[in-house]
Amino acid sequence: MSGTASFVLIAVPSYRRPERLGRLLTSLAGHRDDVAPLRVEVLVIDNDPEGSAAGVADAAKAAYVPEPRPGLAAVRNRALDEALARGADALVFIDDDEVPEPGWLRTLVAPWAAGEADLVSGRVESTFDSPPSAWITAGGFFRRVRFADGERMPVAPTNNLLISCAILRATGIRFDEGFGRTGGEDIHFTSALHRRGARILAAPDALVIDHVPDERATASWVLRRAFRVGTTTARGDIVLTGGAARRLTRRVRWVLVGTARALAGAGRWLIGVVSRSVSHRARGARLIARGAGMAAGGAGFRYLEYRPRNES
């Protein structure tokens, strides 16, 4: 960050979750004071054509803009545009169903403010509206990869992420809206930045809590998500690979790697059945789903996890 940098924009993508959005906006008030003298503004970007977030944003004295184009990639690109147009020095993404822990923003800003990082990735932990099943817990479906403080990362999700606006201006990289209905736009975006030399650092003490509703704490949902992540992991890598011959090679590699993982998962699942181990069955099922997704993504399949956001 330059010596004159002073403006951080917190962007909150939102879609028809007014109660959870209100909880987040209330919690952000103290974080704005926590990083003084930096100026902090909160911007709600509403992807609901009916504008369900407008009243919540107004009550919290947060800025508000609608984004009529459906999908998270379009919403996140709107956030990039708003940050650059408003002259922000850094853009922070946080999801509308999350709540930051004390010290979150101060800890997230620190590596960027010290000039050590272009992107800073905080930690996300899940809590549940109702206790999840033993199978979901044993399978580690909501367990995320841990990084040490200050560790360099090749990619990062955008549900708790600071991005230097300088790197956005220098590279011109945006979210690929071809991932709008499949998800995975964040990993593709940060991977593209990393390949252009952006420094992505982990800040695990910048913690937010992700509140998981009951409809996501089911076996069918977590397996579909594992499959989708597999497809977008493969597809994102292929899209960023230059040259037709190299892309074909990557496609073949992902089909082989995904198939091998799915077979290994089937073996672990079978061991779990024989041994009556919930952990082996759940982890085997997760590996099958993720591996099958990688193979499918390598073969060109797109799993549309998100229906168009203008549909009820």
User: Which spans have pLDDT < 50 for at least 5 consecutive residues?
Assistant: none
Give, in order, the helices and strands: EHEHEHEEHEHEHHEHHH
Gross morphology: globular
Q: What is the tally of beta strands?
A: 8
- What CATH first level of the largest domain would be assigned? Alpha Beta
N-to-C terminal Cα separation, in Å? 43 Å
CATH architecture of the largest domain: Alpha-Beta Complex
For the largest beta sheet, what order do the strands appear in spatially? 3-2-1-4-7-6-8-5
In percent, how much strand structure appears in the residues?
15-25%
Overall number of domains: 2
Mean pLDDT: 94
What is the assigned CATH homologous superfamily of the largest domain? Answer: Spore Coat Polysaccharide Biosynthesis Protein SpsA, Chain A
